User: Which sequence fits this backbone?
């Protein structure tokens, strides 16, 4: 079960881990259909067998989507999310393959109130991992509603 944190509980250094998830052929096919990216490295097993990887690669962007979605199985916000502010320093370190079992580790990096008040911004590092090996990682920033009476 995911931890639920509000403004007062969020602190730099807190870490959480999601359960694992095995990537399937269906995941792969659905992402290709969604994006329209049918490059042979993803879609053609014979072509992919001739590459360095020796098999079809799952899309790098699928890793970002997985990290964003799977983080909610590790930790959720008690305060309303007003919007995602972006990603930075995202790295594709290793390829994703059908059959890989991955999980997400979430580390809180910072929390700050906005200058206008009533809102706060949280930065967290998301690491998509296969075992202990980092496959992708980067910083995701989100803006949340500051609870009434909270002191920043």
Assistant:
């Amino acid at each position: 079960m995911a931890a639920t944190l509000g403004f007062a509980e969020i602190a730099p250094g807190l870490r959480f881990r999601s359960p694992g998830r095995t990537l399937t052929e269906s995941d792969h096919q659905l992402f290709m259909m969604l994006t329209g990216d049918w490059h042979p490295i993803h879609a053609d097993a014979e072509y992919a067998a001739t590459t360095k990887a020796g098999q079809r690669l799952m899309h790098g962007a699928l890793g970002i989507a997985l990290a964003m979605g799977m983080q909610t199985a590790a930790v959720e916000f008690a305060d309303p999310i007003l919007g995602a502010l972006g990603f930075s320093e995202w790295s594709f370190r290793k390829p994703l393959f059908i059959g890989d079992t991955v999980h997400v580790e979430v580390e809180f990096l910072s929390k700050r109130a906005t200058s206008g008040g009533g809102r706060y911004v949280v930065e967290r590092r998301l690491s998509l991992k296969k075992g202990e090996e980092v496959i992708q990682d980067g910083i995701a920033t989100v803006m949340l509603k500051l609870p009434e009476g909270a002191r920043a």
